Each structure stands twice: as C-alpha cells, then as structure tokens.
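thread from #wetlab-drylab

HS: before we spend reagent money on co-crystallization trials with magnesium ion, can we at least see a predicted complex? here's what I'd submit
DV: go for it
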Amino acid sequence: MRLSRYFLPVLKETPAEAQIASHRLMLRAGMIKQASAGIYSWLPLGYRVLRNIERIVHEEQQRAGHIPVLMPTLQSADLWRESGRYDAYGPEMLRIRDRHDRDMLYGPTNEEMITDIFRSHVSSYKDLPMTLYHIQWKFRDEVRPRFGVMRGREFLMKDGYNFDLTKEDALHAYNRHLVSYLRTYERMGLQAIPMRADSGPIGGDDTHEFLVLAETGESEVFYDSEITDLKFGDREIDYDSVQQCQSVLEEFTSRYARTDETHDPAIFDQIPEDRRRVARGIEVGQIFYFGTKYSEAMGATVQGPDGKATPVHMGSHGIGVSRLVGALIEANHDDKGIVWPWEVAPFQVGIVNVKQGDATADAACDALYKELTAAGLEVLYDDREERAGAKFATMDLIGLPKRITVGPRGLEKGVVELTDRRTGESEEIKPELVAAALT
Ligand code: ATP
Ligand code: MG
Ligand code: MG
Ligand code: MG
C-alpha cells in the first residue's frame, strides 16, 4: 500500500477523552472512530489488525476441530423466554421491537440460538461430539462503556459451543478449548493466563478466564509468579487425545491464579511470600462448562446408545476479538507509539523514502516495494511529500515491526537502513538483501 493513496487519519493531538494508552494510541493512529458511546467504526489500519486477530482465531479453532458458522446479531425474544434469560438478563440486553410488535434483541451471546439450531437438526449421539463457533458482533449495553474497544457496547466476539453426550466428553471439550486458547493468544504474541473465575449470567460450575496482565486491566488478580513462566510454545498436540488435553490443563492450572471473584486468601497465603502477586488484568476470553442448563430448558436431546433421549452436555467459550486489539496495544507500546507483534501487525514493513522526488530514491523504493510485496510481505510505503522526521514519527506511532529507510546518501554507498521497531536497532543493508532478511 502506498501511503499517498491510503486512508490513515493520524491525530497530532492526544484526544482528551482517552484515559489509557491503547485507547489514545488507537485514536491517534487513526485505527478507530467513535460512532456513539461504546460503538466504533474500524478505519483501515484498525480493520487490518482486527482481521488478523480473527484469522488467527479461525485457524486455531479449526485446528482444534471446531466448525465455523455465522448466526445473526438480532435474535427473537421467544428463544430467550424458553431459557428464562429474557427476564433474567437485565438492562445490559438491548431490546428491540419490530414493526409487527415482535420482541427482538441484539444478541449479547448465543447459547439459546445455537441450542435451537442443534435441537432442530441433531437427534443422535452418533453426531457427537460437535463444537460450533462463530465470530460475530455482540451488543451489551454496558453501564460504563470506556477505554475504547476494551469495553465497548458493540464488540466482536468469537463464541463457540460444544455439544456432548456425557459430562466427561464435555469436560474434554472444555480442556480442548483451554489448550486452543493458549495457542491462540501465544500466536498473537500475548501471554494470557487462565484463572479460576466465577460463571456470572452464563451459569455453570467450571470456568476459567484468560487474563492479560496490565496495570489498566479492570480485574483484580491474584497469582503465584511461577505461572508466568509457563509457555505453550510450539508443542504438538492431538486435540482428540483426552489425556494430552487434560495434562495441558493440569500444567497451566497447577499454580494459584484467580480473579477477585474466586480469590481465597487462606490458600493464597500458603504460597511463599516472594511469589505472591496481586495485580490487574484484562479479560480476553473465558471458557465455561454448564452441563444441561440450556439443553434441558430448551429440549435439546439426543438418542443415546441405549435408545433413550438424553439432554446434551454443553459449554460455551468466548474470545474478545475486538478487545484483544486494545489488550495487544496495552502489552506492546512505548512512548512513541504502538509496537505490533509480527503476527497481528497491520503491515509488517514500512518503507520511508526520506527524499521523495529524488529519482534514485524513488526508484529504489519502488523496487523494494514491489519485491517485498511479491515475497508475501505486507508493506506500507510512505511516498508522501513530507519531512523525513514526520514520516519517522508516523511509522513509530503506527508501530510496524520493521522499517526500511531509503535516502540518496545511503544509496550512494549502496545501502538502505533496516530498523527494528521494538529494539530500535538499525543496520545498513544492501537493498537486494532486504527481502531475504525479512522472510
Ligand atoms: P467483562 O467481565 O469484561 O464484562 P464478560 O465476562 O462479561 O466480560 P464474557 O461473557 O465472558 O464477558 O464474553 C467473552 C469475552 O468477550 C470476554 O472475555 C471479553 O474478552 C469480551 N467482552 C465482554 N464484554 C465486552 C465488552 N463490553 N467490550 C469488549 N469485549 C468484551
Ligand atoms: Mg460483562
Ligand atoms: Mg468477566
Ligand atoms: Mg467473562
């Protein structure tokens, strides 16, 4: 992409309404524009990051054997009356009436709708196990939408639902989700720690939240510092193996890690004092096992091997896709701007032409731009008639992992400069070696 033809409305001033770094930086880098309280338009740069996160979530869900679908944002109130949640959900639910006076709502989550799909089409245990998921906008009329996309009212969520014959199978689905979530966050360059949590309005007994440690997080968390040493890494996992998934769960829940809702000082105080941590975290996902709560209320049964109809065991599993954009910035920024991890960066490489209009510099930039793009990299070429200083400031603000600086002086020596956004380290390199250095 040539910046002269792109739409990147960066702001010079720090917007007064933004209280935390990620919100400030998303506004300043022209990633989002508020449409109304807690509702945002995604501008081109922000949209690219959102799509990258979605792509990783899709890939990891499907790697775990989960099946993508897409359900609507608007739902009929009748389904929610069946489960009893239409009245129970409270003012966070946006209720709408259509022209025929039918009660509708903008879905805050989809347990009822997916259970309805399941009961309409599945009747035998032979079709199980089954996990369906989608990535779709949700609406929750939060009392205090704030921090930009972190606590929006309209937000993008991946929500998945498992259907199993027995509790044991459903717990395997739970463990499988935990493993796939560990992989998902690590691929984005994030450490998200599974913590014992409270189930809230979804209901159920077993639940973990995934938290990214950050001072600006809204949750208070208590953990044993040893938990932060655990990495999933690139280990191979067979998602069908009950034993393998179970052992990953045991490993990653073997140290104390809880949110304030389930915190137990009596257990916490047994951890050696130098390992006890009280901190703040951002909830980027949550998994639940809730058994037959919805299947019983809504009549989602299958015929078991014994021929008897039995309600399926279910769980639901969410990832805050749009919140992750903010969480990633909270975890990856410095005083100059954002520092994107490679996997989610809107572009991986920026080219800065320090002397636009100089025939040699322009030609070298054009050649690099074409070559790197052909090599499969996503490149933003700053070809504007701007001062070099302003171009550097924009690149630092939008945080592309690598910058190539091209100018007549370097080209005379036969080199360009390759700079790493995170370390700030630069090296001189021959233009023809850049592609190899980046791929
Ligand atoms: P919170 O405690 O932050 O209100 P939640 O527990 O109500 O979140 P869940 O029902 O567990 O949310 O939804 C799954 C995920 O969706 C959350 O882990 C979070 O990452 C994301 N999420 C929830 N509410 C919002 C919101 N208002 N804005 C952005 N993302 C959200
Ligand atoms: Mg909530
Ligand atoms: Mg929560
Ligand atoms: Mg939650």
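DV: The first helix runs from residue 21 to 28.
HS: ok that's useful, forwarding to the group
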